Amino acid sequence: MRSHLQGVALKLQTVKSHQAMAEAMQSTAVAMKKMNKAVNVQTITKMLAEFERENQRTEMMQEGKEGVAAAVCVCVCVCVCLCVCVYKYANRIPGEEFS
Fold first, then answer.
1. d(CA 49, CA 61)
2. Using one digit for the tens of pLDDT, what is the confidence trace for 81-97?
3. Considering just the CA atoms, what is the radius of gyration of the chain in Å?
4. Where are the domains of the chain?
């Protein structure tokens, strides 16, 4: 008899737990419905797409700037080398070999 009462008490506790869960889920569903009405999904989707496009543009511009900077660096190095060579050639002593 005692074990039977314990079984019934356990069943009652399980039913109460299920009831509490159902009420919580119902409250959550109501809140989600209200939020769904308040939020315009299409507008948010458009905003996210625009953000992604801008982010890609920024990344491409950054990559382009890095490429231009590297090209400028190479040009400056070449120009400096040419200037040094021209200076050496212009200031060489006649008859001396150019290196």
1. 18
2. 666 665 565 555 555 55
3. 39
4. 1-39, 40-92
State the virtual CA torsion across 3, 4, 7, 12 in degrees, nearest 10. -140
Q: How far apart are CA 17 and CA 36, in angstroms?
A: 28
Please, what is the Cα angle at 32 between 26 and 36, to 5 degrees?
150
The first and second tokens of residue 92, run together, are 């060489």
The pLDDT tens digits for 2-56 are: 888 999 999 999 999 999 999 999 988 888 888 778 778 788 788 888 888 888 8
Cβ 79 vs Cβ 71: under 8 Å: no
Q: Give me 47's structure tokens.
A: 């905003």
Q: What string of DSSP letters covers 10-54?
A: HHHHHHHHHHHHHHHHHHHHHHHHHHHHHS-HHHHHHHHHHHHHH
Place of tokens 């070999």: 97
- Rounded Cα distance, 47 and 42, in Å: 9
